[in-house]
């Protein structure tokens, strides 16, 4: 009762007017019987639908019922509605149907029932805002309400035994923790020649660091050729590491041990020297990009015989 106010009972009545329209459909039924093809024309189709369901013709209801409700609401007479409706349909249909939204001030009952949306005042009075849900409270005081985030109170969760001696997973094994205790022989590299700079340079595929014409294949290096590549007097510095010849010349300013140290292995097999000082250094990875054509970064394979 609070929603519809005093005139609430009338809205229930408008349903009977639908039954009234059934009388008019009877005429439509006759026309529909005349027209066997109901699906071809829209109007005929509507008439056919009215045939199948005599009491509630849907299409006719839209046009007619609104005027009926306008009249019915003031009358509020249920018993008279069924028979008198046929006459009421014809007269009021055009005028009242078009003006249904406008007469809202004159006839409040109609407005409240069918087009309740257009009048905000009526809606506000009918539909008060819902109460704010209590669950939206800030979680500051809700510590008791959020037990899932807190650790369980009873038993402590099983924790891996990290605090025990010898079980630390963060520290590396003692055998791999540091380099051998030897005095550093590293030199101060000139700007732009850091290991990172070398990695950037050697990673550039456009750089041909072999000192050979671009696209040239690997060389078969003889011992006599190797001996001439001392890195002095304008010659390149070649060395042999693991049976392969590498042109160390581009790497000279990048060598952390210094150029003189690196040149100790020039023009000869440097495998033993290299292994004595830094066996952990991956020379293949560092020198592989010396050149593009043929790859490998070296001058070529070492020829066993001259
Ligand atoms: C072309 C091959 C070589 C490459 C790619 C190379 C690369 C390196 C690298 C990366 C380091 C730094 C290592 C580190 O800090 O842990 C280094 C240091 C060093 N290299 Fe080489 N090296 C080469 C050949 C040689 C040769 C043949 C010698 C000796 C004759 C040598 C002597 C040294 C020395 C003395 C250090 C300084 C070690 C230190 O930090 O105390 N290197 N080299």
Description:
The chain is mainly α and 306 residues long. It folds into 2 domains: 118 residues, no CATH class; 108 residues, Roll (Flavocytochrome B2, Chain A, domain 1). The protein has 14 helices and 5 strands. A 5-stranded mixed β-sheet has the order 1-5-3-2-4. Strand 2 and strand 3 form a beta hairpin. Helix 2 crosses helix 3 and helix 2 crosses helix 6. The longest helix is centred in the N-terminal third of the chain and has 20 residues. The termini are far apart. The site of protoporphyrin IX containing FE has 22 residues, from helix 12, helix 13 and helix 14.
**Which regions contain 5 or more consecutive residues with pLDDT less than 50?**
21-53, 61-67, 103-124, 291-297
How many extended strands?
A: 5
Quick check: average pLDDT?
Answer: 65
- Rg from C-alpha positions? 49 Å
Strand order across the biggest sheet? 1-5-3-2-4
Give the H and E element order.
HHHHHHHHHHEHEEHEHHE
Q: Please give the oligomerization state of what you see.
A: single chain
**Broad structural category:** mainly alpha
Q: What are the distinct ligands in this entry?
A: protoporphyrin IX containing FE
Query: How would a crystallographer describe the biggest sheet?
Result: 5 strands, mixed
Q: Helical amount among residues, as a percent range?
A: 25-40%
**What is the domain total for the residues?**
2
User: How many alpha or pi helices?
Assistant: 14
- What is the CA–CA distance across the termini? 114 Å
Cα shape: elongated
Q: Proportion of β residues?
A: 5-15%
């Amino acid at each position: 009762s609070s929603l519809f106010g005093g005139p609430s009972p009338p809205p229930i009545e408008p349903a009977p007017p639908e039954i009234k329209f059934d009388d008019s459909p009877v005429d439509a039924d006759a026309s529909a019987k005349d027209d066997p093809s109901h699906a071809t024309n829209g109007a005929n189709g509507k008439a056919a639908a009215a045939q199948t369901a005599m009491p509630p013709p849907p299409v006719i209801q839209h046009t007619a019922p609104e005027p009926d409700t306008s009249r019915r609401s003031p009358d509020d007479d249920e018993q008279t509605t069924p028979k008198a409706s046929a006459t009421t349909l014809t007269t009021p249909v055009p005028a009242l149907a078009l003006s249904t939204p406008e007469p809202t001030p004159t006839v409040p009952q109609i407005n409240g029932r069918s087009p309740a949306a257009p009048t905000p005042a009526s809606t506000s009075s009918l539909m008060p805002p819902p109460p704010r849900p209590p669950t939206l409270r800030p979680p500051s005081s809700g510590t008791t309400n959020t037990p899932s985030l807190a650790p369980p109170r009873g038993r402590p969760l099983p924790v891996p035994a990290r605090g025990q001696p010898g079980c630390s997973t963060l520290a590396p094994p003692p055998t791999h923790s540091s380099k051998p205790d030897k005095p550093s022989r590293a030199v101060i590299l000139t700007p732009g020649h850091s290991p990172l700079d070398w990695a950037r340079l050697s990673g550039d595929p456009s750089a041909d660091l072999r000192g050979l014409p671009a696209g040239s294949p690997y060389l078969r290096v003889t011992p006599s050729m190797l001996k001439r590549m001392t890195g002095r007097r304008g010659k390149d510095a070649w060395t042999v590491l693991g049976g392969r010849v590498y042109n160390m010349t581009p790497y000279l300013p990048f060598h952390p041990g210094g150029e003189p140290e690196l040149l100790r292995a020039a023009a000869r097999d440097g495998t033993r020297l290299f292994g004595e000082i830094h066996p952990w250094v991956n020379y293949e990875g560092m020198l592989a990009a010396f050149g593009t054509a043929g790859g490998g970064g070296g001058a070529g394979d070492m020829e066993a015989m001259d």
